Amino acid sequence: MRQLGTMTIISNCTVSVIKDATASLIEGNLVAFPTETVYGLGADASNQQAVARIYEVKGRPADHPLIVHISTVNNLDRWAKDIPGYAVKLARAFWPGPMTLILPRTKLAKDFITGGQDKVGIRVPAHTVALSLIKEFEAQNGYGIAAPSANRFGKVSPTSANDVKAELSDYLSPTDLILDGGPCVVGIESTIIDCTQKLPVIIRPGDVSTETIEDLLLIKLPTFNTRSNKIKAPGLLTTHYSPNAKLFLTGTPAPGDGLIASIGFKTPDGVIRLASPKNNADYARTLYNALRQGDALGIKNIYAVPAEDFGIGIAINDRLKKAANK
Ligand code: TXA
Ligand code: MG
Fold this sequence. Notes:
By secondary structure, the chain is an alpha/beta fold.
């Protein structure tokens, strides 16, 4: 029986810390690490037992596939085959960055990574700590680090090392690690693009927006719509990212309720302001922290005024809808 609740947070991620964390991954432990989107809960993507622990710690159903994190587009063909030209263009334009590509898998991507599907999700994150860790892991003959967001299943993704600790300390073991790389600069999860068809299809919106992709590829993408999305992605549920509080996207907050709204929006008397974003990017960066803060204060109802519906605002509103849907 593992001793629970005493894993270490390491905030000064020096070369020797990265080497130790890599050794720990190779031994089959979990290492939570920062990315520019949210913190990930990492394991050796080729080690079935280690990956099984991710599911156990998150409390996540086994058919939900995991994203494999690699250090460079040049290693993409280890994990994926029959890569369409547009996917190569996307990878070269936006990696390292907040984008995951779903591609036909090679033999390296086992069922325990893909949830039994013939396609695999791959991402190169843009964070120095994540990249150093993945590079060192690859230098030690590792192929990739599987990492979902480091939260319990269905809950709000963590955007700081302390959030990871708050979410998972009861489930991690003393040999697991949390690497602290500061607060996440994007703040919501990567854009996921299905690249197994003739044209790319966004299955989860993120910071790499429809407009940006259209500009790069000179094509028109179908409008993102959670409910009309027919692509099988078991993790993409209509309810997700939920705080303990009830979240409302319309209506009027009463005294004691929480409020998330852009900076120009006045706080009604007695209402607790949780965030006042200046623009969409600021909204994405602060949203999950505001939801967590609301829970920490024991607030029962949180009202959020949706973001402006363009760019990353589409992704914010997608997360708000899913968080409100419970
Ligand atoms: O920003 C992010 O993407 C973060 C950081 C840590 O990289 N990761 C993340 O992972 O959000 P996760 O597991 O919390 O969400 C990944 C989503 C899941 O909903 C999963 O179903 C979908 O990606 N996914 C992964 N591999 C897939 C595949 N082969 N086919 C379809 N969907 C896939
Ligand atoms: Mg997640």
